[in-house]
Specification:
alpha+beta; 31% helix; Heat Shock Protein 90
């Protein structure tokens, strides 16, 4: 990513750390004057992405971490999550069919609906994955 980060933090890959992440992300988004409803959607998408890392990549093992970097570059919000979990096959991470009647499992659907683009890739030659998400901001959202 290029540009100066609005937010850069490393958090433990534990559900208890999500409240701190949501607060920090909300403060970063407020600095861009993003409308409250849009902030809520973005925070939910990042929360779901982090939760998926915890549950599926780390498989709730103790000791993992998630790096979060948020940037505002040329009218786009760029969000990157990096973990050190075993590599995940990106072909296995898809929105589910909403016609299925079952609870949960909507995190990827929320990310897909909220973000303009997202891409998951395993890191080469070392453990870990990077999820890059992008969202165009309306002109009135910028500083």
């Amino acid at each position: 990513m290029s540009g100066r980060p609005l937010l850069r933090m490393t958090l433990p890959a534990r559900a208890e750390a999500m409240a701190e992440m949501r607060r920090a992300l909300a403060q970063a988004l407020e600095r861009l004057h993003i409308p409250a409803r849009e902030q809520e959607r973005l925070i939910l998408a990042v929360h779901e992405a982090c939760t998926n890392v915890i549950r599926h990549a780390y498989r709730e093992c103790v000791g993992g971490s998630i790096g979060l970097c948020v940037e505002h570059v040329r009218g786009q919000l760029r969000i990157r999550l990096r973990d050190r979990a075993p590599p995940v096959d990106p072909r296995c991470v898809r929105p589910r069919d909403l016609g299925e009647c079952r609870p949960g499992g909507l995190g990827v659907n929320i990310i897909d609906e909220t973000m303009d683009r997202w891409r998951l890739r395993p890191l080469k030659h070392r453990a870990g994955n990077v999820l890059c998400m992008r969202r165009r901001l309306r002109k009135e959202s910028g500083p």
